[in-house]
Amino acid sequence: MSSYLHDQVNIRKHHVGRRRFLQQISAAALGTGMLSFRDYLTLQAEELRKQGRSLIVLWMAGGPSQLETFDPKPGTENGGETKSIRTSVPGVEIASPWNEMAKVMNEVAVIRSMTNKEGNHQRATYQMHTGYIPSGSVKHPGFGSCVAQQIADPEAELPSVVSIGQTQGAGFLGVDYEPFNVTSPGNMPQNVATQQPQPRYNRRLGLLNRLENDFADRGAETVVTNHQQLYKKASKLVLSPLTKAFDISNESQSLKDQYGDTDFGRGCLLARKLVETGVSYIEVQSRGWDTHQDNFEAVANKANEVDPAAATLIKDLKDRGLLEKTVVLWTGEFGRTPRVNPRGGRDHYPRAFNSWLAGGGIKGGQVIGSTSTDGTSIEDRPVEVADLLRSVCQALHVNPDFENISPLGRPMKVVDGGEAVSELFA
To answer: Is 205 found in the same domain as 170?
Structure first.
């Protein structure tokens, strides 16, 4: 792990403080100079890994309408036909299709003042997943990979980043933090079972390594190293008894019914199982939120899938004592235009949209920020993408100023700029 650490890393206030550190490490080691700053950072990273924290991102691909989710405007010209409903938090109302989420709003912090400038799907998705706008000179690591780099157990047998759908890759961070993609939640991933006894499997790997080492000696060392690293990671997964975490068949039927008989519902149930197994980052994707036409019917249909699954995930994590160490983030790349277009749809609108978070010590039962009566502008407390990602880092005890060095020699922070939303932790 020390090879990834750089002396430029700043010690943020939400990490282990110097005073606490001095209490834990003998004065003799410090006094004699046996413990360097790099040693301190290494110990700090090891402490983070022991905390077992995880992030689940519920990704609404296409950009969900804020007015039909968690910032309704009933009775206004732009509000449309969607009504608002009461929630478990007095005075807080959300859109009518979200009946199950209304019951768990005491655990949720809604940000109604998200704002951005990127109105293109690809660019906004990239930014929300990396903290950076796309650049032709470098492929930035996904935020999930950066999180896993700091908090995942390097000896874990399961991948530290799992995508139930598709997410941003690890970029220059390499194979260790590359997402493992699950295309059919509820079914075991393909090709994770070996038909060979383990001793025979290991002998075959040994033979492959000898053949590749000969190839490396002839000038292909980098290619061989990367290939062997990939095989090592895959072998851990194939041979591990923890692989059964991908199987949800042993969960009770009543619980599966609560999550919902949909890919998204099964994905959320799988996310909970993976958190129990120690996976650091799981993303569950819901597609179909690009509602340029028939917005109200489309969002209602999507809510029928996402609402019960998201609410059950929060309750399930809490019932199992996992919510305090697990951050759940619900978001899309942007919102939709307040004005309904002639096709009954809403178009792209990054200026004002909503997201929500739960768990990880975040204070639930609150709404942060607000938009104008017609929904066209933010009235108070604007929150940008960098602010949101820094807030997630704070909840996970991850250092957002940790710097990786790109292949071009450029230092890159996990999150560049921004400031955590203090109200989330008040």
So the answer is: no
